[in-house]
Amino acid sequence: MAEVEVSAPAKVSAGFFDMGFELVKGESAEGKYEILGDDMQVLTLELAPDQVMISEPGTMLTMSDGVETEVVCDNCCARQCGGEPPINVSYTNSGTETGFVGFTPNVPAKILPMSLDAYPNGMNAQSGAYMSSIGQVTPGFSLDCNPMTACCAGMGCCRQKLTGDGVAFLNATGTVIKKSLSDGEVLVVDTHSLVAWDAGVGLGVQATGGMCVACFGGEGCCNTTLKGPGDVWIQSMNLGKIKRSLGVVITMKEGGRGGGAPVDHESMVR
What we know:
mainly beta, globular
């Protein structure tokens, strides 16, 4: 049988990465934490005696026997304004030996570790992006008083802001890329694809085009702009787009039972 010659894959994306983009992977930090899987990942950490880990409710997957849990209510109003639950859960190793904890996102997402000590101005993120943290990390919010960006940049008037010098773990869906913007460089992104950005990066908006583009181009009236210097993270598939693509809405027929889900698939509206 004649051999089929397969040409080497073209490096189409080489120019893309030469412009400062890089593919973000859930890389692990030896001796600190490890991120398992390619998607819908698992975050595992070793906890020294008396070490504390903070996470959202419902994210715990597994933990060792000596780890104790307690609700955390401090900074609850600022946390909720940033799109987070007002109460988080702390995991403390109360034993005398090294323990472990494992977390997984509440949505089908990747886990992005962010070392905040590299960002003295703090880190802004989309609402609800924060999952958990280790070390000194404070989830809060920053207020956007510009009507244009508050209404059209996709982040609302209250943006999630993370400050401190610890490591924050964020949720992001789809493929995630990072761009390091030089001073004065402007990047245009889809309004709902921005995951996080250095608080020193300027957020703005620009028109997507004329009336026909705004109505039929699929991007709406405005795109989001980011002006450097600083780092930005972009996701290929935001959670809202995932929900719309599934297109499943559950309704009850009139005269049906008082509660519960439909008993068969014919009762579901797709």
